Amino acid sequence: MVTREKLYTAEEFFELAQQPEHADKWWELVDGVIVEMPKSNIRHSVISARLAYLMGRYVYENDVGFMVGIGAGFKLSSHTMRSTDVAFISYERMPKIPEFLDGAPDIAVEVVSPYEDIFLKANEYLDASTSLVWAVYPDDERIHVLQKAEPRWQELGIEDTLTGGDVLPNFSILVKQIFDKKR
């Protein structure tokens, strides 16, 4: 749902979103338009938390970067800010954790909701220098891996292995580890 008619810059959007009266809002900025996002459901949150844990364990044990959870905005262009469900940023790209993320993550993870145009969102991340986008489909228990390198798109099923590619070398988990065991 669009909440404003004025076109905003990423900086204006960030300032607006930080105001206390907007603390309960979940917004993204898409081509200058503020779009209100629905809250995620419990399964969505469980999958996000599980991925953050599995990735984070590898990231912190190997001291290669930091994880970002849901709610942090990434400035992908002067008029676009998106929020991932989970993200990884390497210390090589960003040696210190900033207050404002001016740029894209190295890996963006999106737990896909029925209303989302995930391919539009994934391409925005890839165009802004994200190396890998993992689109996680809870109902189908599959993952689409989108990347700049070839192959640009790959589908993984429940029995496949998800890897960090060149971004997180030696990171791998079974896709079935991501999804709930009890539904």
Q: Main β-sheet, in a few words?
A: 6 strands, mixed
**Which stretches of 5+ consecutive residues score pLDDT under 50?**
none
Strand order of the largest sheet: 3-6-7-8-9-10
**End-to-end distance:** 30 Å
Provide a count of the helices.
3
Which descriptor suits the 3D outline?
globular
Sketch the topology as an H/E string, one letter per element.
Answer: HEEHEEEEEHEEEEE
E-strand count = 12
User: Structural class of the helix and strand makeup?
Assistant: alpha+beta
Give the quaternary arrangement of the chains. Answer: single chain
Share of helix, binned: 10-25%
The portion of residues forming beta strands comes to 25-35%
Radius of gyration equals: 16 Å
Average pLDDT taken over every residue: 88
Question: Could you characterize the architecture of this molecule?
Answer:
The longest helix is centred in the N-terminal third of the chain and has 20 residues, at 42-61. The strands form four sheets. The protein has a six-stranded mixed β-sheet, sandwiched between helices. The chain has helices at residues 10-17, 42-61, 118-127; strands spanning 27-30, 33-36, 65-69, 73-77, 80-83, 86-90, 107-111, 132-137, 142-147, 153-156, 161-164, 168-174. The protein has 183 residues and is an alpha+beta fold. The mean pLDDT is 88.
